[in-house]
Every structure is written in structure tokens, then in C-alpha cells.
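TICKET: design request
STATUS: open
ATTACHED STRUCTURE:
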């Protein structure tokens, strides 16, 4: 990227002390939004009740509310981290500034797989949802990348974005066709389809956590190789990278994260788009810093969205997926206009 095409390169190569400073800021923000998540909702809970509830006391309604909100808060941070990291890896793998599990059809592939599983073989456990979602997400990702690679120029950002948008629209129609005739699953599916963490339980977190940790490990271990891919396939190969293998392994980690997050919280869009762009401005282009920052910042964003959804419509709530869509749609338009869908 030349200076005429975007931010000055020097502003994207932050010294270590600046990166460490932003790390402390992001960690502090994560702690604050998690505290806000257990304190705010249909009832506002005081600090003394929060401390008592964390210690295991549930003698009052406020303390009981805190105990119920703790798994919700943890799940919001985990799902946000998974989506933020998945988006950063997808952007690195495809060199596409518009890459995101929602925009590329990965979330919708996971949702269709769950819908088909519920309608045909009666999926009902979180683990079954997760396996189905990962399989659906992987198939959708392969399809979108294959379609976007057709024709002159290969897999350009514009072609992949268009292929993802078309695939998402088609999969949405298929989901409706599968679920609509089935009144026995439609109600539960529609509440999950919106995307949110209101149904969090310790059991669900325990079931999805191994998948998220596995995807996290794969993605973080791919960071150095993603730096090589950013130089272009020919240069990466000249540096000794097996480009196809690196791209496939990193994409696998991103799909596992996106599929697991979608299975447990529904299809939450735009977190994977917004977060990596924010983090590049803070810590630069080095994926060894960008990926962990994207995970932490994703946790901050989704937890904050969940808190906002509970506060603005009290005593009812707006699901976090709706809040992220309201934030992400204008950001998507801004990125399209500013980047002109060039490669990263």
C-alpha cells in the first residue's frame, strides 16, 4: 500500500512501547465492559452485591442476577474474541479488507447446517450444533473462495466479497425453506438466528470452549506465516512457506472459531470486519501482534454491544447481533469507499 492509497506506513508500524501501551488499554477496557455486563441489565447491581455474588452468595435478587450474568459475560467475551480473531485471519488469508465470517457467507453456512440438522436428525446438544456449524462453515468458505477464484485475476477482494454476498443470500433463502415448514423447530431457531448471548450457560461454555481454544491455537501459530503471505504468494514461497498449506491451516482455524461462535451464539455479523481494521491502526500489520489484539478487542466489542442492548431498551433487551449490525453496516460502507476493495 503506497502513501497515496491509504494511511502512512509509518503510522502502521508501531514501536513496542506503543503496542504494550495499547495492550494495557484494551485489557482495561475488557475488564471494564465485563464489570458493566454483570452490573447493568433490567436491574442495576451495586458493587457490594457483585462481590458477594462472585463469592457464591445469592441471598438477594441482585446477587442472583449477577450469578446469572456471569456466564453471559464470559460467553460474550469468548464469542467476540473468536469472531474478531477469525476475521483477522480471514483477511490475512484472502488479503481482502472486506473479509468477515458474515460477509463471506461462513456464518450462513454454519446456520444452514444447523437448520438442516435440526430438521432431519434432530440436533439438540451444543456439541452437535458445533460440529454441524463447523462443517457448514467450512463448506461455505470453500465454495465462496472457489467461486471468487474463477475468471481472470483469480481471487480478487471484489470477486470474493460479491461471491460471499450472493452465497449468503442464497443460504438465507435455503434456511427459510428448511425451517418455515417445521413449526416444531421454527420458534427456537428464530430466537437463535438473531444472534446473541442471552442463553449462556456454564454447560454451553464448557462444550464450546475446546473448539474455541483449538481454533485460537491454530490461528496464533499461523501468525508468522500470515506475515509472509502478506508479501504475496511468490515472495512467501521464496521465503520457504508452503503457501497452499499455510493458507489452508490458517483458514481451518478461522472456520473453527467462526463455526463454534455461530453454533453457541447465532450468526453475529461485522465483529470480524470492524475489529481487525481498528487493531491495525493501533498495533500495525504484524500478525503476531494483530491476532491477539483482534481477539481481545473482539471480546470488548461484543461484550459492550451486549451491555448496550440491555441498557437502551430496559427492561427488555436488544440482542447483541442487532447492535453489531447497526454499528457494522456503516463501517462496511466506509471501508468499501475508503479502501476501494483493494487487497491488503
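STATUS: resolved
RESOLUTION: sequence designed for all positions
ATTACHED SEQUENCE:
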Amino acid at each position: 500500500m503506497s502513501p497515496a492509497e491509504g494511511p502512512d506506513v509509518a503510522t502502521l508500524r508501531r514501536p513496542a512501547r506503543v503496542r504494550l501501551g495499547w495492550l494495557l488499554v484494551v485489557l482495561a477496557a475488557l475488564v471494564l465492559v465485563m464489570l458493566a455486563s454483570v452490573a447493568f441489565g433490567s436491574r442495576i447491581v451495586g458493587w457490594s452485591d457483585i462481590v458477594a455474588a462472585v463469592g457464591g452468595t445469592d441471598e438477594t435478587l441482585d446477587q442472583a442476577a449477577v450469578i446469572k450474568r456471569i456466564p453471559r459475560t464470559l460467553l460474550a467475551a469468548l464469542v467476540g474474541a473468536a469472531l474478531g480473531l477469525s476475521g483477522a485471519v480471514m483477511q490475512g488469508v484472502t488479503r481482502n479488507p472486506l473479509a468477515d465470517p458474515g460477509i463471506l457467507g461462513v456464518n450462513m453456512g454454519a446456520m444452514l447446517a444447523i437448520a438442516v440438522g435440526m430438521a432431519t436428525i434432530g440436533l439438540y446438544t451444543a456439541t452437535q450444533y458445533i460440529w454441524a456449524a463447523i462443517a457448514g462453515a467450512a463448506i461455505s468458505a470453500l465454495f465462496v473462495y472457489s467461486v471468487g477464484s474463477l475468471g481472470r485475476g483469480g481471487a480478487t477482494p471484489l470477486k470474493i466479497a460479491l461471491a460471499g454476498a450472493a452465497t449468503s443470500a442464497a443460504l438465507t433463502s435455503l434456511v427459510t425453506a428448511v425451517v418455515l415448514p417445521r413449526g416444531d423447530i421454527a420458534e427456537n431457531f428464530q430466537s437463535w438466528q438473531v444472534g446473541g448471548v442471552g442463553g449462556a450457560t456454564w454447560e454451553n461454555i464448557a462444550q464450546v470452549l475446546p473448539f474455541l481454544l483449538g481454533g485460537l491455537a491454530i490461528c496464533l501459530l499461523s501468525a508468522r506465516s500470515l506475515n509472509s503471505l502478506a508479501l504475496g504468494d511468490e515472495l512467501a514461497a521464496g521465503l520457504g512457506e508452503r503457501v497452499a498449506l499455510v493458507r489452508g491451516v490458517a483458514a481451518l482455524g478461522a472456520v473453527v472459531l467462526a463455526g463454534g461462535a455461530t453454533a453457541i451464539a447465532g450468526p453475529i455479523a461485522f465483529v470480524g470486519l470492524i475489529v481487525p481494521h481498528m487493531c491495525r491502526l493501533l498495533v500495525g500489520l504484524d500478525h503476531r501482534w494483530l491476532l491477539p489484539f483482534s481477539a481481545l478487542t473482539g471480546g470488548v466489542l461484543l461484550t459492550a454491544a451486549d451491555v448496550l442492548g440491555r441498557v437502551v431498551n430496559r427492561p427488555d433487551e436488544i440482542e447483541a447481533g442487532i447492535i453489531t449490525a447497526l454499528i457494522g453496516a456503516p463501517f462496511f460502507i466506509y471501508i468499501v469507499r475508503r479502501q476501494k476493495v483493494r487487497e491488503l
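CLOSING REMARK: The radius of gyration is 20 Å. Residues 7-339 form a domain with the ABC transporter involved in vitamin B12 uptake, BtuC fold (CATH 1.10.3470.10).
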